[in-house]
């Protein structure tokens, strides 16, 4: 299952407020500006800076 396009349209990086890219294969949202990866667990984006991992 993937994230809905409506949800992806409103989500932004919690650190820089920039656009995110959804990577279905990795089940994550990536901020290219901050170079951080936010996990998606059970179709729920975990948008906590402490949970993000560097690219």
CATH hierarchy: architecture: Single Sheet
Question: Which residue ranges are poorly predicted, with pLDDT under 50 across at least 5 consecutive positions?
Answer: none
Q: Remind me, CATH topology?
A: N-terminal domain of TfIIb
Strand content: 25-35%
Specify Rg, calculated over alpha carbons: 10 Å
Quick one: overall form?
A: globular
Number of domains: 1
Total helical segments: 1
Structural class: mainly beta
Mean pLDDT: 94
Termini distance? 23 Å
Number of strands: 5
User: Helix and strand string, N-terminal first?
Assistant: HEEEEE
CATH class: Mainly Beta
Range of helix content: 10-25%
Largest sheet data? 5 strands, antiparallel
Q: How would you concisely characterize the structure shown here?
A:
The protein is mainly beta. The chain contains one helix and five strands, in the order H-E-E-E-E-E.
């Amino acid at each position: 299952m993937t994230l809905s396009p409506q949800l992806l349209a409103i989500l932004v990086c919690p650190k820089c407020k920039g656009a995110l890219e959804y990577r279905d294969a990795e089940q994550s949202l990536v901020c290219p500006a901050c170079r951080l990866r936010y996990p998606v667990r059970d179709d729920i984006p975990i948008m906590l800076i402490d949970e993000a991992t560097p690219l």
